[in-house]
Each structure stands twice: as structure tokens, then as C-alpha cells.
Design brief:
Elements: H1 3-15, E1 31-34, E2 53-59, E3 64-70, E4 79-83, H2 85-89, H3 91-107, H4 116-133, H5 140-149, E5 159-162, E6 171-177, E7 186-194, E8 197-200
Parallel strand pairs: 2-6
Antiparallel strand pairs: 1-4, 2-3, 5-8, 6-7, 7-8
Helix pairs in contact: 3-4
Length: 201
């Protein structure tokens, strides 16, 4: 296997892995979780033939490993089997419901101000989605902390921006930073686009 192919396989394992136990509470069996909530799909690009793109990079002290990957299908259909039904239909569903009325006017460019509560909802929802994708490289205590406190763990920052761009494409961008060893310990950033809103976390 070529080095580039080995890198792709390695990065795929870091981000797209189903689990037998819930990544937030440890219960089993697990269910499928939509990376992109169903309510967001109406604000995404129209369906197109082909597979969505994904760019993943991992920064080490002496090198950067990166790869352009193709997903199994449309970005909106991306699901990962890693959470139990209780979490999925409980606190996660409640957070998703709370995020919709806050995010919708931002996506439609009908709102410019956010309260402290709104910011916390967006940040928690964004970190949740990032942890679902990168659960293999996010420490289990941080995942449990998110579930218990319903707010981003210490050290996480979330940025959201309004961007005007002539041509959009559906893609997932991740840049992870490794501290020591082969497994990255910190998710530095990921990117999700809804219409003209870029959500960075």
C-alpha cells in the first residue's frame, strides 16, 4: 500500500468509526446519529450526483498528515453509529431542538445579535457534532462532561461567521492537532456550512 493510501486509511479510522457502546454514557446498543441534523438539510445545497468531499489534516510536532477523502454519499446523509437511544432521544434531541430556533434566523440572515444563552446553545450543539465525528480522538471524560454539564468542556472554543461566497460545495473540513504520541488529543477545528453561515469549532 502506498504511503498516501496508508494516510487516508489512518485518517478515516480516526474520524469515521462506529462503536458498540455509547460515546457519552457507555451504554449499549448504539444507534445512528445524523452528523447534520435533519432540520438543517433544508438550508443545505440541493442534492447532486456523486459523493461529498472531506478534507482531514492532523498536525504533529514534526509533520502534517492530510488527505482529501470521498464520503459514502451526500453530506446530509452522514450518520455514525456511536450513541445509545437514551442519549440520542434525550439530551441530544433536546439540544438539537433548542439549536434550531437560534440557528435558523442566522442562516437566513435575519438576525445579528445573540444573547449569552444563544451563544451557549450554539457552542454546545457545535461541540456535540464535532465530538460525534471525532469521538475516537476526544477524551472520554470530555465527552461525559459535555453530557453532564450541557456546555463545551474547558479549552473548547466555537466561532461562527457570515460568509458571502459565489459558489459553495458540500464538504467537511477538519484540522486536528496532536500533542504527543500518534493519536491526536485535541480537535482544533471543523467546519460546517449552511447557506452563508460558516460554523467553526
Amino acid at each position: 500500500m502506498k504511503r498516501a493510501d496508508r494516510t487516508k486509511v489512518k485518517l478515516l479510522k480516526m474520524t469515521r468509526r462506529n462503536t458498540a457502546r455509547c460515546i457519552f454514557c457507555g451504554a449499549s446498543p448504539t444507534t445512528q446519529e445524523h452528523v447534520f441534523s435533519q432540520w438543517t438539510q433544508k438550508y443545505m445545497l440541493p442534492r447532486r450526483a456523486g459523493k461529498a468531499a472531506s478534507y482531514i489534516a492532523v498536525e504533529y510536532a514534526d509533520k502534517v498528515e492530510s488527505a482529501n477523502l470521498k464520503m459514502a454519499g451526500e453530506l446530509r446523509d452522514w450518520q455514525i453509529k456511536c450513541v445509545c437511544a437514551s442519549c440520542n432521544n434525550g439530551w441530544m434531541s433536546q439540544l438539537d431542538t433548542a439549536a434550531e430556533p437560534v440557528m435558523k434566523p442566522l442562516i437566513l440572515r435575519k438576525r445579528e445579535r445573540l444573547s449569552a444563552k444563544d451563544c451557549r446553545i450554539i457552542a454546545t450543539w457545535s461541540v456535540l457534532k464535532s465530538m460525534v465525528v471525532h469521538h475516537r480522538i476526544v477524551h472520554h471524560l470530555r465527552r461525559k462532561k459535555l453530557k453532564t454539564d450541557c456546555k463545551p468542556p474547558k479549552g473548547w472554543s466555537v466561532w461562527i461567521a457570515n460568509s458571502k461566497r459565489g459558489k459553495w460545495k458540500s464538504e467537511w473540513l477538519s484540522r486536528l492537532r496532536a500533542s504527543t504520541g500518534e493519536i491526536p488529543r485535541k480537535t482544533e477545528s471543523a467546519c460546517a456550512c449552511y447557506a452563508g453561515i460558516i460554523d467553526l469549532y
